[in-house]
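Protein in question quoted for reference:
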Amino acid sequence: MKPSIPQGTRDFGAEELQKRYYITNVIRTVYEKYGFQPLETPTMENLSTLTGKYGDEGDQLLFRIMNQGRKVEKANLKAFGEKNFGKFVSSLCDRGLRYDLTVPFARYVVMNQHNLAFPYKRYQIQPVWRGDRPQKGRYREFYQCDADVIGSESLLNEVELTQILDDVYTQLGLNVEIRVNNRKVLIGIAEIIGAADQFMNITIAIDKLDKIGIEGVSKELVNRGISEEAIEKIKLFLDTTGSNADKIAVLERELADSETGKKGVEELKTFFGYLNKLELQQEVKLDITLARGLNYYTGTIYEVKSKDAQMGSISGGGRYDDLTGNFGLKGMSGVGISFGLDRIYDVMEELGLFENIATNTTKVLFINFGGESEDYAFQLLQKIRQANIAAELYPDAAKMKKQMKYANAKNIPFVVFVGAEEMQAGSLKLKDMESGEQQSMSLEEAVNKCLSV
């Protein structure tokens, strides 16, 4: 049988992984510069932890893990007989693969609340899984690189997270638009148009604006039971243009009769007031159409898109006021962002931004001539490695052509030859694989040469 991997997953070889490590190293370094500490949580969580946190659509995309052993006996065969397959599958599964990193983080905070210093700042770089339909930029297994602050309501946290977004994307050489909105503003809009009870339906539809356009959103709103009159009022908000200050002025005027909406506008004014005092490299734009479909967001929300590549959002996030309340710890507000490693990688690959990034790990290859030469080369190899230079000795005394082909295939920049003449002189011959130049030199000179490149 021909081997394969599940749809929506990918293998990564050495060259791809070096590029991905480059991205995550930039993200990790920036996170730590801002005082965030690392965390890892299990691949699987109890389904009771995951379900009900992402909305109905999110729950449908959860990968469930089937029970084993005697637990299978508890399967709901009646549901199966009634063709209620959703209920039947739920009776077979009580664990699932994590859908994101935020909900497991909230669960961790509740379980470890007495051992943490609040506000607690953590970052987490791990894979997540969603049963989505695979397409460009959308995978069933992908990596998220999250940072969250929990235990503080200060909008300074949102400002610092925006600085992190700006810092990371500037270092990666990407030109992006950081889009910001506030869920309280969206609640205010729902209240003003008389559809407060339809808030989630409205946000789910608005969140698809980039994909299906204003007419598609209108059609979906109709299908979700929103009146034509309300839809026309929603369109007026979605069509608001101008500077960030202009948009805030419109919202301040139009949401004057909504207490929640007014609070959202005040938070936006405070946020942009702080931000205007900073010198950021990337554009930060108030986008009233930004909704973010996840149920748990309650305040500021983020989305980042590349200006130079056709790709969905490459970062997102927002504030959640009581996510830990789902696990028994009330009143613990948090805010976070997430970098989508896989999409960032795809965008950088498309734009050729990896061209100047070294993807080879081995810097020096010792050619193996066998016998005494092999012993001598093996000793020099240890000294090269002690100088923190990645080096290999070809394991077999194979033909020279085969060994050189290996060096070329791995893009190894230097090759070392040690024959009888070099052993007698206590030297080695170093070949620069790019220029083709060969020189006899001491081990110390060879180390300095390799370190200088």
The radius of gyration is 28 Å. The longest strand covers residues 120-129. Residues 14-33 form the longest helix (20 residues). The mean pLDDT is 89.
